[in-house]
Amino acid sequence: MKVLSHCLSALTLALLLTACGKRATSGSTLLNVSYDPTRELYADVNVAFANQWHTAHGTTLKIEQSHGGSGKQARAVIDGLQADVVTLALAGDIDEIARQTKLLPGDWQAKLPSHSAPYTSTIVLVVRKGNPKGIKDWGDLVKDGVQVITPNPKTSGGARWNYLAAWAWAAKEFNGDQAQILAYMTRLFKNVPVLGTGARDSTSTFAKQGKGDVLLAWENEAYLIDREFPGLADIIYPSLSILAEPPVAVVEANAAKHGCSEAARAYLEFLYTDEAQAMVAKHFYRPRKAEIAAQATLRLPELPMVSVDADFGGWAKAQATHFNDGGTFDQVIKP
Amino acid sequence: MSHRSATTESAPVRWLLITLALLVLSLFLFLPLLAVFVEALRRGTDVFFAALHSPAALSAVQLTLTAAAVSVPLNTVFGVAAAWAVTKHQFRGRALLLSLIDLPFAVSPVIAGLVWVLLFGAQGWFGPWLAEHDIQIIFELPGIILATVFVTFPFVARELIPLMEAQGSDQELAAVTLGASGWQMFRRITLPNIKWGLLYGVLLCNARAMGEFGAVSVVSGHIRGKTNTLPLHIEVLYNEYQFSAAFACATLLGLLALFTLGLKTAVEQITHQRANRRT
After folding, report:
1. Do residue A78 and residue B123 have CB atoms under 8 angstroms apart?
2. Rounded CA gap, B202 and B195, in Å?
3. ipTM
């Protein structure tokens, strides 16, 4: 008995000690902390980049992935998740990391071409097959008996794009009359039965659990639903949407600590190459390179789009006005 | 009829009640379990075994087993010590200790995870010190173990306290009178008296340690093939539309539950037999 108890405590101690291990600093792994709908895209990109790295350097690079709501992921990096690169849904979330920590510089967005956004997307309306509720535009979402599925803007980046797209339409519709815009947004969120934590969460609610009439979704996520659940849904392009620019950045302090700064930078630069841009198109994002977009098997339609920088005064302002405590979203969901 | 039944209800009423109970049981317990296995095997055994063999799944299983292997022994030692202190001694703050043991049951798992982020996260109380010494707790194995230990804290103690309270301390007193040392008394008297209850508590503790989702989700960081435990891995697969693979991994947890249930029944039977033999 005594021997057993000694063995037990030794085992516990040993496990605890190994548990407190430090992360390998050999620079052979790279952690990409990303948002929800990029899972399939980065699964492809990681294989291609690891192959390229192996050819060029002769060493094996292991790329690890973590996915979740964009705001939640940014929070995790702030709390110490050892991300070497972040590939999030919106610049505001990376700004928040830069503001709360010293992990990356404030001008991170100037480090890579096209505002550090190698691909873009937009927000579309996904309806049930045949569009039984006759949804054609943002105005139809506030009709009685229409259930709208969208995640929570507090935790999800996609949800914030959804919110701003709806806001932009209302602003145009009501000539910028703040009271009428707020009234529209309030009615819209009255029709939302459940706020998921991330885009993928809401997609599951709509597609797998069959809840809701309209899903506000990333364009790429909408096409993914069509591929995974054929015959379930139709994609409706509204009269106005928003240009979503999901940005990427090296978390410089973490990458330096892990000895993988070079790999991290090369990884993000790889996203702008023809090879990666073709994957971007394959997974229904909009490539930055026009010639790649033109070659894609699926041509994504052009539509009028507002942008956060031009129409909402940048993410810092949009975040403060709409999503921080006391912002318009809090007023809209107030019971 | 020679013997009188303890119940006075007529046969139809009895049958109605039994049918109702069985109906509810099958609806709420058996049907979901069946659904897990059916979904898992929907795309054939190839997909099923491929899902269990994938590196991410194997790493999740390994992580889950490691977390349980550390937290269950820790909580066993703690549970026995706490139950011992509470039942064999009278001291000031005893009532407080009793309620503290129950705390993890009362607190939401999300909070159980967040407290560790508050303490050991990069922005937390000890964050700067840990960063200086290059020690990673949150979003790594230690954080997952801490969360698991916290959540499974009460199982062993809760199982032992009523048992030891009922047994009283007469036998221990006799042992001490006859000159037994503390360790001898524990080994020869206390442990044999509580061993089946202890085993039962350990089983429950283990089942929860392997199945815990909420608290672990907060401190995991969700790094695929690294910090995803089995329940988290199932969620990831589900969110990636790999339903068959998700349910294949869920069968592992389902089998664990069934195994635990079987062991628990066996333990209960043995305890009953021993109790009957004594009387």
Report:
1. yes
2. 10
3. 0.80
